[in-house]
Amino acid sequence: MTSRRVGLGLGAALLMLVSACDSNKITKANDNPNSPTDAPSQALFTNAARNAVGRWQDGVGGTRYGFLSQHLAEAQYPDDDAYSRLRASSTSALFNNSYSNELQDLELIVRRGTAANQPGLSAPAQILKLWEFGVLTDVFGDVPYSQAFKADSLVLSPKYDPQLEIYTDLFAKLTAASSALGGATNQLLGADPIYGGSPAQWRKFANSLRARHALRLINVNPSLANTQLTAALSDAGGLITTNADNAKLAWPGDGIYDSPWANNFKTRDDHRISTRLLTYMRDYSDPRIAAYAQPAEVVLPEIAGRTLNYCPGGTGTTPCYVGIANALTQAQASPLLSNTSRPGVAFYPGATSYGTFGTPTGAKFPSYMLTAAELEFIRAEAAERGIGGLTPGQAAGFYNAGVTRSMEMWGVSAANIATYLANPAVSYTAAATTVDRQKLIAIQKWLALYIDPIQAWSEFRRTCQPAILKPGPSAVVAEIPRRLYYSTNETAVNSQSVAEAVARQGADNFLTHIYWDKSPTAAPTYQTGCGVR
Fold first, then answer.
1. Angstrom distance (rounded) from CA 447 to CA 454
2. Least C-beta-crowded within 10 Å: which of 66, 132, 202, 451?
3. Which residues have CB under 8 Å from 43's CB, separation 6+?
4. Cis peptide leading into 162, omega within 30 of 0?
5. In this predicted model, which residue has the larger pLDDT, 406 or 6?
6. 3-class secondary structure for 28-89?
7. Model confidence pLDDT, tens digit, residues 20-30
8. Beta carbons within 10 angstroms of residue 257's beta carbon
9. Class (C level, CATH) for 372-481
10. 37 — pLDDT class (breaks 50, 70, 90)
11. What are the extents of the domains in the chain?
């Protein structure tokens, strides 16, 4: 369901097409003769949500940026894990299609809802649009923002806004959207696959998203981070603090709109649990392992530097989970395909081209955009730092709540949660220093972000935790990438704007640090050689 599609690439040629003449019509330059231009806002919203969430919460299909978080590794063709398919020629579609598909639809909905004084329509569209812009700028750095969708004002080569300016506007618009929803009525209903149009739930999402981005600035702009974090955490609209509040899209699982992971796993059997993830699962005796991974079909002795075994009941018992190191060479990885652990059965659609794993309900598995666990870890770090209106004495409670919300999300019992939190390696009160406690928060947050790879990767860039993450032997660069390349379309048709962004931000490559990542050593949890092989 969509109102139009543009057959061109992105860049100036695309962005000039995505502005609306008024609240109801897209500029004539963007009309698609094969698709109507007056689709109802509700239909546009459904389509935009599915496109946006499917694109950025995937990470295992198409462009497999999921290996950046190193929760998963490849056991057959490690080119994705080695970042060789994260070049601009492969990732341009991530950039291009965000603008040409869902962002233009969301912009139109915002304009329609604003013109009709319907905040129950415009505010959710605005929040979803800002969620995606937050992802875009965290992945690429400076991106077209203030001049995007301005073709009718004859802005044909949109500038790339500095990330700080994008963040500043993002904070302002999220604040306004939260306020507008305070008196809004539900105008999306079943057309909203995330919250069913609930103004109260969208308001919590807006405030929690604002808190996420505020904390991301802490190493480079602590004053702004504190100001925005304080305001977000105290907003009258509340926060995502229970799993019932989680921002997630539950896929229909109808064979057309399936969970991205399940859709990928129908035909591709290459993803395995990384030794990085399994190290913490093993060392912490983490009960989530049964949800995160499947036992290995055949368990062989560990191969130093290549595999890691974890048998919760002891060596030689079942189940036994086996992780594989990231970015091994193909000669090293391929023989390990049948001896390492796949992701959990919940992510599989049942019948696949290589066997039966899970059940058909795997096609319905939700994509999580922001969870209560993440929000609690944000509050835990803020409290430990004494910012955001919180105090260090509150940190343990938020930390325990973050672990608990994550465990509950994966079906772990209350008794097993209590046992886990009492583990000296996990216990907040057992940590000796504030740095040790912040490391615990960062690692537990990374564990909880298992199926949200871009956020897990972003948190690693910000905190340098877990410190064991680094590229494998076949990786094309010796450091975990700090950003992705700009679109090849943009460098071709909007070259001046791209050049200005590169001159300001740094070379267009994996190792350039975006704005909030310019001072990684400012993180108290930073360790020398962070992310470097």
1. 13
2. 132
3. 1, 191
4. no
5. 406
6. HHHCCCCCCCCCCHHHHHHHHHHHHHHHHCCCCCCCCHHHHCCCEEECCCCCCCCCCCCCHH
7. 333 343 344 44
8. 17
9. mainly alpha
10. low
11. 260-364, 372-481
